[in-house]
Automatic annotation (TrEMBL):
UniProt keyword annotations, A-Z: Oxidoreductase
GO molecular function, one term: oxidoreductase activity, acting on the CH-OH group of donors, NAD or NADP as acceptor
Domain of life where this protein originates: Bacteria
Domain NAD-dependent epimerase/dehydratase: 10-247
Source lineage: Bacteria, Pseudomonadati, Bacteroidota, Cytophagia, Cytophagales
Name the UniProt record assigns to this protein: Nucleoside-diphosphate-sugar epimerase
Organism: Sediminitomix flava
């Protein structure tokens, strides 16, 4: 049982990120002082929304310059904190050198933050943003799992440097986190493992998340001929922030938490958006046949290799989210609300334009 004192500051790495921004806002709303560790504390475009969030609360925000790959960079920001959130990690699938762009930042970054926590006597709990990608690579892995669904006991064994290196990086990073946590007894570790995170960004113009790209694909015409029934999990960014908050402040929180609200696929996501946006945007109305994807997929998108299509298209994805509901009392937003709110932000910001 770990009791966190809300009068002490709380550190958040990558504080201006997509999920982290909502978490910072949640902490500030609670009247907490946030030590926000960011790459560049002078970049108003990237941190202005956090200052704005703080202005309307009783909380306080202090910015610290810290880089994931610089050893000891988080030392100053962590001082006096009982609770540390490590959310900073690259989320991109378009990379030239996966070792350098994904594996190293994920693994070394995690080691850097957690080793600093070992040297900071005030720290009692570390919450790491992991991913369902540390549990599975392809939808077929959930079909092959015991009882046909993913649980917190499962680790990803199918990703590699050559196949789905993003998933591989998340697996190595989380394993590194548990290895460091097991090497000491001063603080406990909790991990949040979200599936695909969607929902409105607090700073949409500067959000580099893959999530924005997926909404652009759905609404921008890439899938107007049809969408693949590619099995995946989906969760609202605001629910993921709440999951982090509760993982930090629920004394009995422990281990990993699958943070996924809905088992879905791209076609279903498009279909849900149709009633509200179908007239102005070229949303998908029918499934894209698997044989067609096998033919053209590898030509149109590096990710869509034949192996990837075989293992994900027309394959259902299922995860068991009962642990987070039971232990942290999380209830999830309806998928329609998440999708419509995500889509609307892109329209408001003119990232998507009606045809």
């Amino acid at each position: 049982m770990t009791q966190i004192d809300k009068s002490k500051p709380v550190m958040v790495t990558g504080a201006n990120g997509y999920v982290a921004s909502w978490l910072v806002k949640r902490l500030l709303d609670e009247g907490i002082t946030v030590h926000a560790a960011v790459r560049n504390p002078n970049n108003e475009e990237k941190i202005g929304h956090l200052k704005e969030a703080a202005a309307n609360t009783t909380g306080e925000i202090k910015f610290f310059k810290a880089d994931l790959l610089t050893e000891g960079a988080y030392k100053e920001a962590m001082e006096g904190c009982e609770l540390v959130y490590h959310t900073a990690s690259p989320f991109t699938t378009e990379v030239k050198d996966p070792q350098k762009e994904l594996i190293e930042p994920a693994e070394k970054g995690t080691a850097n933050v957690l080793n600093t926590a070992k040297e900071t006597p005030s720290v009692k709990r570390v919450v790491v943003t992991s991913s369902c990608a540390a549990i599975y690579t392809d939808a077929i892995d959930s079909v092959n799992a015991p009882n046909g669904q993913l649980t917190e006991d499962i680790w990803n064994t199918t990703a590699s440097l050559d196949y789905q290196p993003y998933s591989y990086s998340k697996t190595l990073a989380e394993k590194k986190a548990w290895e460091i946590a097991d090497s000491q007894s001063q603080w406990d570790l909790v991990t949040i493992n979200p599936s695909l995170v969607l929902g409105p960004a607090l700073n949409p113009k500067n959000t580099t998340s893959e999530s924005v790209n997926i909404m652009k694909m759905l609404g921008g015409g890439d899938m107007k001929m049809g969408a693949p029934k590619m099995g995946l999990g989906l969760v609202d960014v605001r629910d993921v922030a709440e999951a982090h908050f509760k993982a930090g402040f629920t004394p009995s929180a422990k281990g990993r938490y699958i943070t996924s609200a809905h088992n879905t696929n791209f076609l279903e996501m498009g279909t849900i958006l149709l009633p509200k946006y179908g007239k102005q945007f070229p949303l998908p109305k029918k499934p894209l046949p698997k044989w067609l994807l096998m033919l053209v997929g590898p030509l149109t998108n590096k990710l869509f290799t034949r192996q990837f299509i075989r293992n994900n298209v027309n394959i259902p994805w299922k995860a068991d989210n009962s642990k987070i509901k039971d232990e942290l009392g999380i209830s999830f937003k309806p998928m329609k609300e998440t999708l419509e709110d995500s889509f609307q932000v892109l329209i408001d910001e003119k990232i998507l334009k009606a045809s």
